[in-house]
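agent: user wants the full assembly modeled, not chains individually. Plan: 1) parse entity lines 2) check alphabet per entity 3) run joint structure prediction 4) return tokens. Steps 1-2 passed, two entities, 300 residues total. Proceeding.
--- entities ---
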Amino acid sequence: MKEKYIEDLKEIKDMMNRSSRFISLSGLSGISAGISALIGAYVAYQTVYTNQDYQDYGRLFLTDENITQLLLIALGTLFLAIGTGIYFTTRETKKRNLRIWDIQTKRLLINLAIPLLAGGILCLMFLFKGYIGLVAPLTLIFYGLALVNASKYTLHEIRSLGLIEIALGLIATYFIGYGLLFWSIGFGVLHIIYGFIMQRRYKP
Amino acid sequence: MKELLKDLDKAFENKIRLGIMSALVVNEYLDFNNLKNLLDLTDGNLASHLKSLEKKKYIMFKKEFLNRKPKTKYYATDDGRKAFRKHINAIEKLLK
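--- prediction returned ---
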């Protein structure tokens, strides 16, 4: 008799979670996104920081060609991160016998996209107006805001990740010459750390 | 013991109805297909359980048309939420 009700409570909790949150976020997708970011940052560093005057670290001069290169590297990194993320997450949903494209996924993506798109457009405008130093800190801040906003619809750890990204973005705004370094910590190292934590915590 | 059992709701004795209600209380609404996927049920099976919860006035539905396709949205009613809360409280007391 008691067992039935313990079972019932478990069922209630499971159904509440499954129906309102996207729970198939794979730790591996975090790790792969982090690695993509580090590769992207390294390539960007190689392209932009070579031929620069190292006496004056933290300040550099970008030509139009540099900016085009940076944009291409950023796009490549984005596709690599999203592509591997989708791959690992789809694998996870299959393992859990869930559907990838359901109402929970849609809710998560919409809430993630609103701050992200706003931030992305703002960064592009800054980039073309020449405020290049602000781009890296701003991507961190808006990505953090997007995570905090979306955390209601997925695993709750995402909220603290978002808060750390926002803090990192603010610090990076102050130390404006070190944007790429902070960017690598926020998008690279943090994703890898969180990926490992999630992977250990949510083994299906 | 008898006192406690009285608060348990017969409508939620069934696992599927319990599942439907759990999902509806944490969502503004879910449509028929969302529920079907969540609970992994056939159309007929889900429909019969929805009907019985509807009869108790624990849930209600609204029919809408999306690109000419009918879409039925299910909502938990206030009565349903209250009854569900009471049922969970009774279980928790019982397990103490």
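agent: reporting back. The two ends of chain A are 28 Å apart (CA to CA). Residues 24-201 of chain A form one domain.
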